[in-house]
Structures are given as C-alpha cells and as structure tokens.
Write a sequence for this structure.
C-alpha cells in the first residue's frame, strides 16, 4: 500500500481505544513489574532499529505491533513512577482524570503563547490558578484580579529561575551591577537555586547557603546576619528562597521570619513549596505557609503530589511587573489587538519558552473529579501512612529516624553506619519490590521513604518495611552490627 | 456517595474511549468552527464556577457533563490551530500517531530526569534524536555516539538559551567578563535571541543585530565586519545565531559563510531552524543546512511542521561538554550508580528544568507511522501549496509578493498600502474562514500566509485566496485604490 496516510478518524478511534485499554491494563498490572528497571545502559537502544523506517508502518494496521513493542522494549526499561511501592525522590503521581486532561490537550493541539492564540487556554489557566488559591488557602495577594497572578510552569526549577529573573530586574538597573547581586537559600535548598544563579549570570560565589537548625530548616537569624553583612559590604541582596519542604527531609523554612528579615532590604522573597504545597489542601496543614503573604513569589507542583501529570508547576507572583519587565518582548509578528488593548494576559511573558500547551485542562479535571474533599482525603491518607512508617522505624531497635516527619517523607537510618545503609538501599532497589533513594543530613547517609503515589496503601508501606527489615537483617549479619 | 474515589480501571477505559471519540469528532468537524475565537476577554472565565468544588463530580458518572462543558465553554474560546485554514504564525501541526504518543507518555507517568529514573525514557529519546539525523541528513557531528548529541527541549526559545549558556561557559571563565560577551544574530532573528541574552545576564547592548540582504537573510560580510570590530575592541564574541527560516519570511541565513567568519574567534555558532528544519526530510531541500557541519549547535521543532504535538524541539550540540558544564549539578539526592558510572546520559544536565516527561514516544510514533517516505509526501504537498498560493498572488494585479518563497510561507501585500493590508487581515480573521498574521519587512506591513497544518489541502488554500480577494475588493472600494 501507499504509506504515509494520515490516520483516519475511524482508525484513530480504534487505536485510541486500544491504547486507553493498554494504559488501564498497565496501571492495573503495575505491581507485577520490578519498581526499578533492571536494564543495563544500551539495552533499550539495542532493541530499536538503527535507522528510521523509509516506509511507515501504518498505525491503522500495525498498532498492535507497536503496543507489543512497548511491552517488549519500553516497559522493561521503565522505572515505574506510578508503582505503589515507588518511595524514591518525591512522588510524581497521576490519576485517570489527569491523563484524560493531558489527552484532551494533545487532541486540541492549541498553542497558548498569547491570549489571542486561544483565549480559553489562557483563561482556564488563570482561573485554575485562582482556584488553587482557594484550594490551598494561599494569600489573596497572588490572585489574578490584583497586581499579581499565577501561571503554570513546567517545573519548580523554571519557577525559581523566573523568580530570580524578576528579582534581578527589580534589584539592579545596570548590567555592571549584576556582580553585586547576592542570593540566599538554606544549605538544604534544592540545587535549582544554584543553577538559576548560574543561568542568570550572577556570581556563584554570591550565593549564600544559610545554615540550618536542628530540624534542617533555615536559621532566620543566620540569614538576617548574612544579609546585614552583605548590605554593609555594598552588595545588593536580590533574592532569598525559603523552602517549604526541602528535598532532603521536607524541612520547613520559617517564611515569616525570613520575609521579615528581608523586608527592609528590598530582597525578593521566593517560597519554593514544590512538594509540600499540596499538603495545604488540608486546613490543618496550612501552617506550612505561615508568612506567605509577605512573599514576592511562590510555587508548588501539582505534578508531584496532587494527582496531576508532570509537567505542572503553579507559580505565583505578588506583583507581575518585574516578571513581565524581565521576560516580555513583542516582535511585530506577535502583535495583535488583544495584546495591544492591555486587557488580557499573554503568558509567553511569564515563562522561559515562547510556546505553551493547554496544561490547565488536567488541573481542571483533577479538581473537578476529586473536589477539595476528595483531595484532602487522599493527601491525609499519605500523611497518615508516613506517620505509620515513622512509627515502624521508631519501634525497631536497629533503626532510627534521621529527621522530623512533618509531612509525607520519612528520613531514617540503620544504626549500623553508612555502608550498611547504602547496602540496604541497593539491595531493596535490586529486589524489585520497592524503590528508595537517599540523602545526607549532617554529613551522614540517610534513607528517604517518600509516600505519595496514587495507589500506595498501607499494605505497600508495610511490605516495604518488611523488605527493609529483611534486607537489613541480611546486611547486618554480613557486615557485623555496629549499632 | 462518598466523593473523591480514584477512577476505576473500567471507568478510565469507558471515559477514555469517550474522550478519544470526542477528539476524533472535534477534528472531523473542525471546519465548522471559526478559525479564530470570537470571545472577548473574560468571556471564558465568566462561565466557570468562581471557586473549586468542595465535592467532586466523579468522572465515572459525570464525564458526559465534562465533555458538554468542553463543547460549551472551551471550544468557543479556542483559536483552532489544527483547522486546515489556520495560516497564522507558523504551524503547530499534529497527527493521530502523535496524539497517541502523548497519551502513552501521560499514561506511563514516568519522569526521566536521570537515566536511572527510567532508562527507556532517555534511551528512546537519544535514539529518536539519532534517527532525526538520518531523516534530515544532518551532520554526523551531532550524533550521540560522538562527543555531541541531541536532546528534546520544550521549544526553540529554550534551545537558544541552552546554546547561549553553553557558549557563555566556553567563552569566559570569570563572571566579571560577562559584560564583554557579544552576541550576533540577523535583524530578522527570533525575539528569543534577545530574550536569551537578557536571561543569561549579558548586556543587551552587546547584542548585534546584523543587517540582512535583499532576501532578508543575514549578510555574512556585515557579520564578519562587526565581529572583527568587536575583537579589536577587546570584546568576547560569544555566540552567533544563524536562522534557517526566519519567522518573518523564512529567509535562510548563509550558515557556511557565517560559521567560516566566526571560526577564528571561537564564537559559538547556533543554527535555529525551528520551522524550516523539517523541510530537510526532502533531500532536495537539504541545501538549507549547507555548512551545518561547522555549527556548534542546532535545533528544529518537530512540533511545528512534523506532525508532532507541541512541545517537541530537537536540540543538538557538536560537543556536549560546555552544555554540561553550564547546567550540571548533582546534589546528594540525585546521586546514583548509573550516573556515577559515566556510561549514561542524564538529560537533566541538558536543559533548564530538572524533570522531564517521555516526549520521545510521540516522535517515535510519528516516524514509525509515516516513515521517511510518508513525511516527505506531506511536506512536499505543503511546499507545493505555498508555490501555488504565491502564484495566485503574482497573478493578481492588486497584490505582490513581499519576499522570496523558499519554503512554506508566503509573504505578500496588497498594493493599497499599510491600512488596506491591516484591514484585510482584520476582516479575514473576523470572517472565521481563515487566520492570517502579519510582519514587517523593510518597515512595511506584510501579510504572512503560512501553510503547514496537517489537513490543509488545495481547496483550503484556494478558499483562503478567494476570501482575501473578496475582502480586498471590499476594503479597496472603501479606502480608495492607492496602488
């Protein structure tokens, strides 16, 4: 046959149904797979044809073969983020409504760089970002009806960069002054802060990593001292990032004290709650955002813990002017009456890329399907499971907690020392039964158990603990007890 | 009922099938909609509930209502990028296989920041980027098996920024030297170049916009002169962007001459072929990339013209070291044996964000479904339609071409002057029958007709021209002929 036809509507329906069914079966059967892929580097590529096909395999006929290849080649090469025994990193959970929202976005295929290029893409996004203010009880200063507003970014890294570019814009007028810009973050802040400093052309040696307290949260007094010293030295305090829920241990920096210390200097206050923000759907956890009304910008990632596919970071500014000054550019080919009227939001001025897809649909679908009540139910379940796991750790003579457990992450260690802990993580991950990652706190190796996948239930947490206990017993027996 | 349940597998299948059918029907019936949305600012938001629901509407029961709301609220607010009479900007075309690839990516829900976090996500991506080298006949220097390699970015804007960060890394060691960095691009280069300069903390006054020749391509002699003057002045030539297919008129900068001029200075050569690159699937168009083997980096967007959903930009570097030096960071919580082995690619070091989804699936699906043969067939059809449209313009006494037509964009104008042309665009877009945008060339208003949507056929181009003729006759009659 003559290859290269577009897929007919009937064939798209048929293959689309088949793929939906495949995804449902994949998610139904996900526990049959080892959580962590066992392939070696190059194993996947070796199974793919070395060159692209000269003649296509029309999906109208060949889609079963495509799905078979997904099963044969791709699935063994996946580390299954949606597996209920995925306890690594932070979650990147998803849900049926979110997958449907992403599918709809792909199906519509609109590009919302400007309001004019699909008004619904912009307006639904603005509306969902205002809904999130209600859902999380965020400060009104971020609502789009005032001088601030929200936008979806791909990630908290990009949000941090945008915050820094806005802060830089507000702090200095002349390029020559960039060398005097200083940036502050906890020693436990995410690596994206240091990366943003480098990207923005600021001096990496002007990034002050502020010491943390015993709970691994930034010491506001140390920040205030450093800030004062920099002001005395004639430097320009440009941005401080307060982390609500650090990656290592979900430590919660004291936003109010940090913002208060920063206030007199004009230093931009960015609050990064990438993982933790979702906890605020539960009113009893809104204390994590105490002082947020004093911040200049804020972000959290629905794509981590709020059942919304990656990528979806909600980024807010209290005053959008600096951000727009930093990022806006209107060449002739983007001019249009709506933009000229000043009555609309053009989100291309709020982000690094120019183009953007309709990501708000999945957020809408998630909030509409679950409602605030449903989201609270699931988030509370994760929070309860973390306390349950922490209790298992506490009750075991060979293990100890390595940090407070304010949210859904448990940092713990075997009393047998660094090698034992590293060996436990390695063997657990090799077992296929669960996936754990590690960090360092006070220089010591710490195992992280992060609970937040959509299908994680008590039985998965209990099974994980049994596996850890068994592996520890084997490792401890080999290495000798050093507790 | 108790709200907040996760969608069951059976319900996901049922609602997924319904959504696939909805998308098929949307695309089947897309010509019934006005291409350009007619809503006014705020129209969409007014139809949405002011606050998120406290209790969810379980999609198992309520999905028909959700789809009805999409029809009622969202669709009227769309400017339909997949409409065959969308001739605005550049295309952002898509296809059944690509939509399926995006759906699969959402369904798998893996996050490929590291090779270890899903080896298939990284390896399929690397493989597809190597396939694109075959498909487009790109220089071998970009293949992953050497010191270079490719990565998917969200957009050409981000690719340009990454190229500049790598170039900056290679050009200067000390932060204080950033003020001496100079950047070069044609006066017709995309606004993302100026934006990248600002983001990277370079001096906007050190961006040299090089004059273009009569065909709106960068004058290599003028570039060489400016470069030499900057070197004499002790400045540091950091990057030149050669545009293959400018946004205004698809002018093609002379890559070979530009790269040759840059060679002795160490200036990084980035080639931005965001739209035009896809033309090189046809061997007879590979001349657009003449000299590309001399470049340090290159990008083109399958999400523009290659039937692949936004976002999907293919970005290549000839030597990945500077890029990795500019962007890599390995905090403890991202350390893992595969990364430590040095045998794998960790794409988080190749981009601005940390996280990333499995975007290579849609590229794989597109290349596999169409094959090189099928893609060539469709791209040639667009190229032929552009020549056909250009001929219609040439044959009309009141219109003239405003630029050469090397690819799929026709720049033209009515002889009646600026106001007549602006009025033609406004009325055509208000008609709902087509969507045109404009630019300026030599200071004069120019209408752009960009041909590249998946379903655009000759009848759509002919209908567009008839509409333009009719509107022009009406406008010309009102404004008086000034030709």
């Amino acid at each position: 046959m003559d290859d290269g036809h577009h897929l007919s509507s009937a064939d798209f329906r048929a293959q689309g149904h088949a793929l939906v069914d495949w995804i449902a079966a994949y998610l139904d059967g996900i526990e049959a797979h080892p959580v962590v892929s066992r392939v070696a580097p190059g194993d996947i590529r070796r199974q793919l044809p070395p060159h692209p096909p000269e003649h296509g395999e029309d999906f109208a006929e060949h889609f079963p073969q495509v799905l078979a290849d997904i099963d044969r080649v791709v699935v063994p090469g996946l580390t299954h983020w949606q597996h209920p025994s995925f306890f690594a990193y932070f979650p990147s959970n998803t849900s049926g409504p979110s997958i449907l929202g992403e599918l709809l976005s792909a199906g519509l295929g609109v590009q919302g760089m400007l309001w004019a290029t699909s008004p619904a893409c912009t307006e639904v996004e603005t509306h969902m970002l205002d809904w999130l203010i209600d859902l999380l009880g965020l400060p009104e200063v971020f609502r789009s009806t005032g001088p601030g507003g929200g936008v979806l970014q791909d990630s908290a890294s990009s949000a941090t960069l945008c915050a820094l570019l806005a802060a830089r814009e507000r702090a200095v007028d002349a390029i020559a002054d960039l060398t005097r810009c200083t940036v502050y973050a906890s020693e436990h802040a995410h690596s994206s802060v240091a990366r943003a400093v480098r990207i923005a052309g600021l001096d990496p040696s002007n990034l002050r990593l502020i010491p943390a307290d015993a709970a691994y949260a930034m010491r506001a007094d140390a920040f205030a001292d450093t800030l004062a010293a920099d002001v005395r030295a004639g430097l320009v305090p440009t941005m401080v990032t307060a982390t609500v829920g650090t990656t290592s241990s979900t430590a919660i920096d004291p936003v109010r004290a940090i913002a208060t210390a920063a206030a007199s200097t004009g230093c931009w206050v960015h609050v990064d709650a990438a993982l933790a923000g979702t906890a605020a759907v539960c009113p009893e956890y809104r204390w994590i955002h105490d002082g947020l009304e004093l911040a200049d910008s804020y972000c959290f990632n629905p794509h981590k813990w709020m059942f919304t596919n990656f990528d979806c970071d909600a980024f807010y500014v209290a005053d959008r002017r600096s951000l727009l000054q930093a990022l806006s550019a209107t060449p002739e080919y983007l001019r249009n009456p709506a933009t000229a009227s000043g009555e609309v939001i053009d989100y291309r001025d709020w982000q690094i890329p120019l183009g953007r897809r309709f990501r708000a649909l999945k957020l809408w679908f998630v909030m509409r399907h679950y409602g605030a009540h449903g989201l609270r139910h699931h988030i509370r379940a994760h929070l309860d499971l973390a306390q349950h796991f922490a209790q298992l750790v506490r009750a075991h003579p060979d293990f100890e907690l390595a940090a407070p457990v304010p949210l859904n992450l448990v940092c713990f260690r075997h009393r047998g020392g660094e090698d034992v802990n590293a060996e436990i993580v390695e063997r657990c991950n090799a077992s296929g039964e669960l996936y754990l990652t590690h960090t360092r706190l006070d220089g010591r190796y710490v195992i992280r158990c992060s609970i937040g996948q959509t299908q994680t239930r008590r039985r998965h947490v209990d099974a994980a603990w049994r596996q850890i206990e068994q592996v520890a017993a084997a490792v401890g027996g080999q290495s000798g007890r050093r507790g």
Notes: Chain B touches chain A through 160 residues (CB under 8 Å). Chain B has a mean pLDDT of 95. Residues 360-394 of chain B form the longest helix (35 residues).
